Amino acid sequence: MEKDIPFLKRILPTKFTAEYMKGRGNYACIYRVHKAENQPILDGLDQMDHFRTVADWMKETKTGDRAELVDLPENLSFWNRINARGDICIGQKCPDFEPCFITRMRDRADGADIVVVNHHLFFADLAVRGNKFGRVIPDYGAVIFDEAHLIEDVASDYFGFQVSNFQIDELARDTDSLPIFDAIVTRELTRIAAKIVGLAEQFWIRFSQARFDGRYPLSPDIFSMTSRNNGAEPTPLGEAHDALDKGLASLESALDVYAEKLPEAESLLRRTRQTRFDLDFIVTQTEKNYVYWLERRGRGIFLRASPVDVSELLREKLFDKVETCILTSATLSAAGSFSFVRERLGLDAANTDTFTAATAFDYEKQAVLYLPRSMPDPRTPEFSQLAAGEIVKVLEVTRGHAFVLCTSNSSMNTLFELVSSRVNYPCFIQGSMSKTGLLERFRETPNAVLFATASFWQGIDVQGEQLSCVIIDKLPFAVPSDPVVAARSRSIDENGGRSFTDYSVPQAVISLKQGIGRLIRSRSDRGVVAVLDPRLRTKPYGRTFLESLPRMRLTDDLRVVADVLGMNES
Description:
- The protein has 570 residues and is an alpha/beta fold.
- The chain is 43% helix and 12% strand.
- A hairpin with a 2-residue loop joins strand 8 and strand 9.
């Protein structure tokens, strides 16, 4: 919206209009913010200050887009209570429907020739098209996916199912705050809500594997076992689910009475029914093309079901229905071939044209790939300490101006702690403020170093000397024990393929190319990519990685790096 669309408007003879849409959770809900001013949703003075900032911003903003709040923390704890996400929206019955930021966003998009959305919103729309919810984004005759290497994972999320402890707690909390003024009814709803909270607690506490953050498979026998007479007998966890389901069913019955009279009750009833359906889908595990898993993230426990293979779903819902689909990315190929992406997404080779555009950059002159000598295997305990030492040495040569891109949050936090205390350059870490705000701070701060993970590996554009160095800690292989990765690998192996070479390596190659792509963003940029993982040199598959990268000078000598950056005099 800020660069490509204005450029096209200048050079194309045909005049056109363009608007952007984001997922509803990015926007503030006027109705909920007004309600929150009179309800106790805040904990602590920091949250009160942050809420005052939001309330003041609401008086001025024209879009309601959360991205405008650049100085607030990325994980604003109360945002979920005041945003405009669809499951709690009361639609046209809302007193603020006309001035609503979502209403205005949709009106602008309906009148535009081009609508810019992210993958998440596109697939949220694709998942509901054809059912009673209609559509999220306007109808389209062609779709262009940028960063198209991400499609499989995003589609897998939106064609899947999820239930979390937050979601059930929120159902109970919203039941308590329904605007019903009959004391007897209110008392009964409060009783049901309290019972659901207790039953949910008994349910979640039985997931013994969820004591630590991570993603864990849900085996088929976790909820029920085969009895002696070959019938199904619930486990203690299965019994806890049955009890919770009965509690949610009683809430459903109580809400049904008020659904026609009260928009909030109708919305809550819809959410309760969906929660019961999704929970039943995950617990019964009847769909064989799905992988069932659990994720623990901080205080959150998420039960999820994701399709193992989305190719058939994408063919049926997208590629066979839309006349023109263009998939573009700097990293759609691995070792010069598009076969990995084509197979994962179910693209028919006969109907799919491919094209590789030559780079506009002279990587051999503009960049150098630094692979340090004698680094240990990244799975060994001493790797972090030695990696930190290498990062310090590289930063002294580049004088900061660097992204340190890590493959996990724990690695990012460890390296930040070990490095930031040993260098005299300003160090920032992802999560300390919004992504937009953090990027702006990095651009404005001389000699800055930014430690980041997943979302900074792609879609980030910092030109010039300010970003002269990209340091990557490890080859970005997906975690093999991750339930979704394990299920995809198993499916490939069972169908006669070789999951490591057919899936793990090409996926990691594409991710590495994304990270390296942060460095050279214009013809005048110069810089160094440092990959601290010795497997690039020591493993046979390392050649596949190196052949997939832009042709750069290769060195293990930091003096060569200094020459490329024009810092040899120092």
